[in-house]
Amino acid sequence: MTSRVAATIDAAHAQGRGAFIGYLPAGFPDVRTGIEAAVELARSGADVLEIGPPYSDPVMDGEVIQEATQAALAGGFRLRDLFPALAEITSRVEIPVLVMTYWNPVVQYGVDRYADALVDAGAAGLITPDITPEEAGEWIAASKRTGLDRVFLAAPTSSDERLDMIAKASTGFVYTVSTMGITGERADLDAAARTLVGRLRAAGAERACVGIGISTPDHVAGVVDYADGAIVGTALVRALRDRGVDGLGETARALAGGTVRQPASR
C-alpha cells in the first residue's frame, strides 16, 4: 500500500521544500479547542500533523508538553476521546494525521483494535517513541494489514545494526532524534542530527525527519538542508497555550517559511 505520509514528504520535496511536521497534544487546552488548533495548524502550512494522546507517564516529553498533556488529563480527556477527535480533524484537513503515542495505551486498548480505530478515524499511522522494532511484531503485523504507517525513532547513540533495523521497519519516515534528552526548545541544534541522518541514509532509510529542539524558522531551514523534514512540537504548544489558536497559526506560518530549500540542498 502507498504511504500517505511518504507521498506528502515527496510532494514537498518536488516543490523544493522540506516537510513541516507539527505536533499538538490531543485535548489541549480542551477537546474542542484542540481540534480547532489542529485544523489551524494544517491550514497554516503543516504538511503532516502529529496528534499526541495525553499519557500519565510521558518519559520523553519536555516541560511545556508535559504541562499541556497533564492539563488535558485533568480536564477529563481519555483515550476514548481520541478517535472522535481524529475523525473530525481528518474530515476537515487534507494532510495526513499521525498519532504519536506511548505503547502501553495501545496494548491496553488492543493493538488490532487500536489499528482499526485509527483507520476508521482516517488517521495515517503511529509514531511510537518507546518501542523498538524487535518488540513491535504485533504492531508491524497490524500496520501491514491496515496500511497504516509505522514511524520508529532513531537516536545519535543507535548502533549501525539498530539503524538498519529501524530503517527497514519504518514506513513514512524515520523520526530522527536531534539530540539526546527530552523534547523542548534549544538555542542550537545538536550537530549529531546531521550525522545521524547520513547514517540512516546509508542504512537504507528513504526519508528521515528531524525532531526535538526545533523551535524557529532558522532551525527548520537548517534541518531541511540535510533532512527530509522538520518536526516541531514545543514551540507550537507554547504558542497555543499563550496566544490561542490564532497565535498558533501565526507561529506555524513563520515556521513553514523555513522549509524552502536552497537550490544546492537535497
Could you describe the 3D structure shown?
This protein has 266 residues and is of the alpha/beta class. The protein has a nine-stranded parallel β-sheet with strand order 5-4-3-2-1-9-8-7-6. About 3% of the residues have low confidence.
Summarize the structure.
With 266 residues, the protein is of the alpha/beta class. It has helices at 4-14, 31-43, 63-74, 79-92, 103-109, 111-121, 137-146, 160-169, 192-202, 217-224, 234-256; strands spanning 19-25, 48-52, 97-100, 125-127, 149-151, 153-154, 174-177, 208-211, 229-232.
What are the salient characteristics of this protein?
nine-stranded parallel sheet; 266 residues; 49% helix; 9 strands; alpha/beta; 11 helices; globular
Topology:
Blueprint lengths: L3 H11 L4 E7 L5 H13 L4 E5 L10 H12 L4 H14 L4 E4 L2 H7 L1 H11 L3 E3 L9 H10 L2 E3 L1 E2 L5 H10 L4 E4 L14 H11 L5 E4 L5 H8 L4 E4 L1 H23 L10
Parallel strand pairs: 1-2, 1-9, 2-3, 3-4, 4-5, 6-7, 7-8, 8-9
